[in-house]
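Good morning N.,

You mentioned wanting to compare the apo and holo forms, so I went ahead and generated the holo version with S-adenosylmethionine. This is what I fed in:
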Amino acid sequence: MFGRIATKYDLANRTLSLGIDTLWRDRLVEEVWLGNPDTVIDLATGSGDVAFALREELSPSVRIDGLDFCEPMLDEARRKQRAAGYHNMSFATGDILRLPLADACCDAVTIAFGYRNLADRHKGLLEMRRILKPDTGRLYILEFSQPFHLVRPFYYFYLKTLLPNVAGALTGDKAAYQYLSDSIEAFPDRSGVSAELEQASFRDVEAIAMTFGTVALHMARA
Ligand SMILES: C[S@@+](CC[C@H](N)C(=O)[O-])C[C@H]1O[C@@H](n2cnc3c(N)ncnc32)[C@H](O)[C@@H]1O
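and this is what came out, ligand included:
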């Protein structure tokens, strides 16, 4: 599905979120910066927007690697990296459910708008914990969430009616955006994701609600 929309993915994101998606990623980057990591792996990196936002804020000595299993999305990320001339970063192919990475190889794992898509979220979390340095490694999950009650009817009206039509016109793939609204509706709220992190033995779990609760940033220690 992401392969079909790869070349239009960034434009659709900016349009459908009215540009707010960059602010969500900026908040994620700010939290990663506070953790002062030497190595960051951006999972479900897609067209690389989180990896590039990290590259712009973190020291050039910090190593940043993106990973995704969708080659057309990775092609977009690599094209953007060449155009911007970013160094000390790369984009690799891999499945989050079987990460081609060594145990305890990084200080921070980020995943933005990818956790919801995993076929087995618990298995994905175990893999994320495996590659993080024990005790000090930190996980950052940026993901859609369940909005505050008052805005819920308006939000779901937008998600189920306006969004698939606008996105269909922009990308030519209305079905991909129907999947988006269905997957958001079926996804747990902040306390549900926090419980999933604790079930996978993550510690010090915190959740920050953004934009009326429509998006959440979860943070935890391995
Ligand atoms: C909505 S995009 C998010 C891209 C980017 N992180 C962002 O913030 O724009 C979700 C990405 O997750 C990737 N993905 C989903 N499941 C995956 C898995 N099991 N392993 C690797 N990548 C996966 C998809 O290929 C897609 O590029």
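The domain at 2-147+188-221 is CATH 3.40.50.150 (Rossmann fold).

Happy to go through it together on a call whenever suits you.

Best,
F.
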